[in-house]
Design brief:
By secondary structure, this protein is of the alpha/beta class. It has a single domain, classed as 3-Layer(aba) Sandwich (Leucine Aminopeptidase, subunit E, domain 1), CATH 3.40.220. The chain is built from five helices and six strands; from the N terminus they run E-E-H-H-E-E-H-E-H-E-H. A six-stranded mixed beta sheet has the order 1-6-5-2-4-3, sandwiched between helices. Strand 5, helix 4 and strand 6 form a beta-alpha-beta unit. Helix 3 runs parallel beside helix 4 and helix 4 packs parallel to helix 5. The longest helix has 18 residues. 42% of the residues are buried. The structure holds ligand AR6.
């Protein structure tokens, strides 16, 4: 079973095969982690994203990482959280699953996720983290090439949530 780990910090600094971007449907950049990734990767990332022609919620697309330490960026679009009854959990699950599938298709060994949808898209952090850990741990069973999955937490609060959820898995 690959290693699942939570770290505190800025995802743009991580030296992994791919970092995941919590993007929007246009894939043309924005605020939050999306803005940070575009700034750190440089203008070429925007040019590469223009060619992709957008992305539906729950799907994922891959580009090079350009000036980032990560070789690739996997762009996925999380759901905007309204009340949890409008398909948000399934769409959030799909983001994690499709991102891992792309990583597997490109033979990547390490990937780092931000807490997709928990910023501007207002997904409650604990609910979102439960989905993230559950989906990643079940999808990885069929993905032998992946060795390390990092949940990159921008705040201490998110880190605590992930550490609690991961504890029983790594015991
Ligand atoms: N590294 C890791 N995590 C980060 C970083 C960073 N550098 N910066 C923020 N976060 P958000 P969303 C955390 O809003 O909710 C954009 O404008 C942040 O604390 O980035 O999916 C897009 O273009 C939060 O926990 O993404 C979309 O329009 C998490 O990343 C929209 O926001 C996600 O927050 C997507 O909203």
């Amino acid at each position: 079973m690959p290693e699942l780990r939570a770290v505190h910090g800025d995802i743009t600094t991580l030296e992994v095969d791919a970092i995941v971007n919590a993007a929007n449907n246009t894939l043309l950049g924005g605020g939050g982690v999306d803005g940070a990734i575009h700034r750190a990767a440089g203008q070429q990332l925007l040019q590469a994203c223009r060619k992709l022609g957008g992305c539906h919620t729950g799907e994922a697309r891959l580009t090079p990482g350009f000036e980032l330490p990560a070789r690739y960026v996997i762009h996925t679009v999380g759901p905007v959280f309204k009340d949890g009854t409008r398909g948000e959990p399934d769409l959030l699950r799909a983001c994690y699953r499709h991102s891992l599938e792309l990583a597997q298709q490109h033979d990547l060994k390490s990937i780092a996720f931000p807490a997709i949808s928990t910023g501007a898209y207002r997904y409650p952090p604990l609910q979102a983290a439960r989905i993230a850990v559950d989906e990643v741990s079940s999808a990885l069973v069929d993905m032998p090439s992946l060795e390390t999955v990092i949940f990159c937490c921008f705040s201490e609060r998110h880190l605590e949530i992930y550490e609690k959820l991961l504890e029983p898995l790594n015991a």
